[in-house]
Design a protein that fits this description.
Shape: globular
Number of strands: 15
CATH class: Alpha Beta
Distance between the termini: 8 Å
Largest sheet: 9 strands, mixed
CATH superfamily: NAD(P)-binding Rossmann-like Domain
Number of helices: 6
Helix content: 10-25%
CATH topology: Rossmann fold
Radius of gyration: 20 Å
Order of helices and strands: EHEHEEEHEEHEEEEEHEEEH
Structural class: alpha/beta
Bound molecules: flavin-adenine dinucleotide
Strand content: 25-35%
CATH architecture: 3-Layer(aba) Sandwich
Length: 317
């Protein structure tokens, strides 16, 4: 690849912002172009617990998850806004093998103690993991990028060819938007709906992905708690379903009885950018233009972001 110092990153969710920051740190001149900016991106809807959920392929996901885990722990220790650590328990109503993500967790994984388990669950795997609070973290990323000299332009792109040029590389972080932009039929929505409620003081995160309440999760943040949820493939409906919200509240209140009097603040829907596998690779177009793709992170965009951003930079080598 011929060397260029100018990069256009398309997309201003967590994938675009972290890629853009790593590129500008590596010495490139970087601009972001995006149709939606925070707080209007899918990334703003995320809970966002470190947890490799609905993203493939497993070997690459593990490596990206590990790199991101280590970076988020470092950021937490450095006092970066919006990065907390919490005890997370994955609940099972049957004996489950050790989780595949164990090797990515430097803080260690343990069996949940009996006193940590709801009676409906036989066991759980517990770990101390990062939570990213998007209302604080995404503005932090925007500010970090801007303070390094990056620029952000709000604009819809109809074709990546609009942006490519001999002296410019394009990094495509368009999430679900890649389906239309590239006619990539491997990209599909995985509908999520969350209810944000007041936090009565809960500090641990719970998920039931396979048991009697599947899917249910409670993700505590500093000032509120995110309750979920659903993961419905190929559902494009962005309107909150009130019945589903009631169902989410019921299941989560069963899991965490302290939520009984929690007040609903809002309900949000987000379409996770599903793909058969995350697409992180370099492509040379017929006219010689170079594009680096970084999209299709499913339910794990925050869990993979820094690992993927490092690999984006490596593809410039
Ligand atoms: C309910 C819910 C809960 C979630 N919980 C978690 C969690 O606990 N942990 C976790 O790791 N992940 C979670 N996720 C998943 C996570 O939110 C996504 O994987 C992540 O946000 C994807 O980020 P992204 O930057 O790739 O895409 P997005 O945030 O969707 O950003 C895409 C960007 O591309 C732009 N774009 C698209 N098309 C065009 C175009 N044609 N022209 C210009 N710009 C364009 C958009 O405007 C936007 O700026 C959750 C998601 C949902 C919906």
């Amino acid at each position: 690849m011929s060397y260029t110092s100018f990069v256009t990153v398309v997309g201003c969710g967590v994938s675009g912002l972290t890629s853009a920051i790593r590129l500008i740190e590596a010495g490139f001149s970087v601009e972001i172009v995006a149709r939606e900016l925070p707080p209007e991106t899918t990334s703003n809807v995320a809970a966002a617990l470190w947890f490799p959920f609905r993203a493939e392929p497993r070997d690459r996901v593990l490596a990206w998850s590990k790199a991101t885990f280590d970076e988020l722990v470092r950021q937490h220790q450095a006092g970066v806004p919006g990065v907390t650590m919490t005890t997370f328990i994955e609940l099972y109503d049957h004996e489950a093998p050790r989780p595949f993500w164990e090797t990515a967790v430097s803080t260690g994984v343990r069996r949940a103690r009996t006193d940590e388990l709801h009676p409906d669950y036989e066991m759980g795997w517990a770990a101390d993991v990062p939570i990213v609070e998007t209302p604080a973290y995404l503005p932090f990323l925007v500010e970090r990028f801007s303070s390094l000299g990056g620029t952000i332009l709000q604009r819809e792109v109809q074709s990546l060819a609009e942006l490519t040029a001999p002296d410019r590389i394009v990094v495509n972080c368009t999430g679900l938007g890649a389906r239309d932009l590239l006619n990539d039929e491997e990209v599909f929505p995985i509908r999520g709906q969350v209810v944000r409620v007041t936090n009565p003081g809960i500090r641990r995160a719970l998920t039931d992905d396979e048991g009697p309440r599947r899917i249910a999760y409670t993700i505590p943040r500093t000032d509120d708690i995110i309750l979920g949820g659903v993961a419905v493939p190929n559902d494009w409906n962005r309107t909150p379903d009130p019945e589903l919200s009631n169902e989410i509240l019921r299941k989560c209140r069963e899991l965490e009885p302290a939520l009984a009097d929690a007040t609903v603040i809002e309900t949000r829907v987000g379409l996770r950018p599903g793909r058969t596998t995350v697409r992180l690779e370099r492509e040379t177009f017929p006219d010689g233009a170079t594009v680096i793709h970084n999209y299709g992170h499913g339910g794990a965009g925050f869990t993979l972001c820094w690992g993927c951003a490092n690999d984006v930079v490596a593809l410039f080598g």
